[in-house]
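Please review this one:
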Amino acid sequence: VQLVESGGGSVQAGGSLRLSCSSSAYTQSSSCMGWFRRAAGKEREGVAVIDTDGKKRYADSVRGRFTISRDNTNNTLYLRMVNLKPEDTAMYYCAFEARFGCLLRVDSFSYWGQGTQVTVS
């Protein structure tokens, strides 16, 4: 499985970005996809996950500001981020796992993209 993220960049606080993740995996079968992030000097943490049926989970720190979605026809995952804060600065990673029932945990995903940097000043 190959995952390629795009859409990162530098924005001012209060700004918005939309991340995309193109997957080589067939996402119409039962699967979980998610976004994780790692800030400098910190552990990778879960941001949001979504299953094939659209059920979502969010980290408390982003709930209400970030929206995860997926297009199973085009095997693509999205993360819409609004009202960005400096503490959202991190490398953002896309993840995929062929499983039923998604967890917002790093160890529940086997496949990862290379990441896209988001910097909020």
Summary: The chain has a mean pLDDT of 94. The chain has no helices and eleven strands.
